[in-house]
Design a protein that fits this description.
Elements (H helix, E strand, L loop, with lengths): L4 E10 L4 E3 H5 L6 H8 L3 E3 L7 H16 L8 E5 L10 H9 L5 E4 L5 H14 L5 E8 L10 H4 L5 E10 L4 E9 L7 E3 L10 H5 L5 E3 L1 H22 L9 E4 L4 H11 L10 H4 L6 H11 L8 E8 L3 E8 L9 H57 L1
Bound molecules: acetyl coenzyme *A.
Acetyl coenzyme *A binds next to helix 2, helix 6 and helix 8.
């Protein structure tokens, strides 16, 4: 098989409209804008309003990514959603995204904490490199605000909600994903954890009273871990891509703390002009942080053809991951004007087709149930006759 490359051909982001500033938090917990900004660089974050969920913001980001790629939902072969805050434990939020988008393809959710997006990108790359699929929609999406104890000042100032998405497409032209490094160290589980609600500590009154349904974090332990892995993972991914740090044009680190981002850049000897930072506006959106930052960097023209982009993340688990992507246009140019003109109508048609498929399936289910009910006496009669004739033999 000829070598297959996977390139990011579409990107988008969707953040809730509701802004929660540090001044707003000062009214809820004993904190200050000065403390939050000096420790983390965060000035404000977005939080969902009623009606907004992980799937709705995922769909918002995905539609943008599809529009940029010049694709319709039906063109997508696979959807992978990285998240730790899905709409439900069951079904997978990826299936909800597939349905709401109007796509007709497999979909699954992947959980690797804040590192999830790079894990998902690496997974999508495998499906493309092996020739299984040509176009994969990769989403990082979180609604962490529901897992925040808004009385705990040590965590509630740090997080925000949002979603980012990319389209990864097969290409015969060199470029795109060059390398990736994935890591996990489960011995760090307790330092960043939602203790309750899973099989280890199921939902119960005791669990709620214990406030175990909220994120708990040992910030200092997480900092120590992050300082170690961010530099190491970046270097490994750069080396595996056959490059040196001098070749990296843009670094997109996980957006949790400006201090940590600056420290990583210093450690690697990269000037801050090469580093994308938006933690001040969105705080830590976990698996959504890197794709949101990527989409913004592209919107601002900070990533251009031929550039080497390194994305590196760390998070709960502990987990970490890094990837190097060589930016390049897809082999086939997209027909922009046509796409832009018809995209909103196309999305409406895809959604309508999805609903129609559901209705047809429901009708078919009802028809088959009724038919079975009607045929049941016949089956019973035939069965009895068969049994009787056997006993007469
Ligand atoms: N406002 C005011 N004071 C506060 C606040 C707050 N919001 N939060 C904590 N404090 C207090 C503490 O109670 C403590 O007071 P004490 O000394 O009287 O006990 C004091 O500030 C210092 O607390 P530290 O925890 O030592 O503060 P530190 O300088 O370490 O900064 C921070 C805390 C910002 C959380 C830091 O540890 C950090 O950046 N950790 C990493 C966070 C991170 O990367 N998370 C991402 C993980 S992966 C994922 O995204 C899910």
């Amino acid at each position: 098989m000829a070598e297959r490359y996977s390139k990011i051909t579409g990107w988008g982001k969707c953040v809730p409209a509701k802004v929660l500033t540090n001044a707003d938090l000062e009214k809820i917990v004993d904190t200050s804008d000065e403390w939050i900004v000096s420790r983390t660089g965060i000035r404000e974050r977005r939080v969902v309003s009623p009606g907004e969920t992980n799937s709705t913001i995922s769909v918002g980001a995905s539609r943008q990514a599809l529009d940029v790629a010049g694709l319709m939902p039906k063109d997508i072969d696979l959807i992978v959603v990285a998240t730790s805050s899905p709409d439900h434990f069951l079904p997978s939020v990826a299936s909800q995204v597939q349905y709401q988008l109007g796509a007709d393809c497999p979909a699954f959710t992947l959980a690797a904490g804040c590192t999830g997006f790079v894990y998902a990108l690496a997974t999508a790359h495998q499906f493309i490199a092996t020739g299984t699929y040509d176009r994969v929609l990769v989403i990082g999406s979180e609604v962490i605000s529901h897992y925040i104890n808004w009385e705990d000042r040590t965590t509630c100032v740090l997080f925000g909600d949002g979603a980012g998405a990319v389209v990864l497409e097969a290409s015969s032209q060199p470029g795109g994903v060059q390398s990736f490094v994935l890591g996990s160290d489960g011995s760090g589980a307790e330092y960043l954890i939602v203790r309750g609600g899973g099989a280890a500590f199921p939902m119960s009154q005791e669990m709620i009273d214990d406030k175990a349904n909220y994120i708990e974090m040992d910030g200092r332990k997480v900092v120590r871990f992050a300082i170690r892995v961010m530099g190491e993972a970046t270097l490994q991914a750069v080396e595996e891509a056959g490059l040196t740090l001098n070749d990296i044009d843009v670094l997109i680190p996980h957006q949790a703390s400006l201090r940590l981002i600056e420290r990583t850049a210093r450690q690697l000897g990269l000037p801050m002009e090469k580093v994308i930072v938006n933690v001040d506006r969105y705080a830590n959106t976990s698996a959504a942080a890197i794709p949101i930052a990527l989409a913004e960097a592209l919107e601002e023209g900070r990533i251009r053809n031929g550039m080497n982009v390194c994305m590196v993340g760390y998070g709960g688990g502990f987990t970490w991951a890094a990837t190097v992507v060589r930016w390049g246009q897809p082999a086939e140019p997209v027909e922009w004007p046509m796409v832009w003109r018809f995209a909103p109508a196309g999305h409406r048609i895809s959604m309508a087709a999805s609903k129609l498929r559901l209705q047809v399936r429901q009708l078919a289910d009802v028809a088959s149930y009724r038919a079975n009910a009607l045929l049941l006496p016949l089956y019973t009669f035939a069965g009895r006759r068969e049994a009787k004739s056997k006993s007469e033999e």
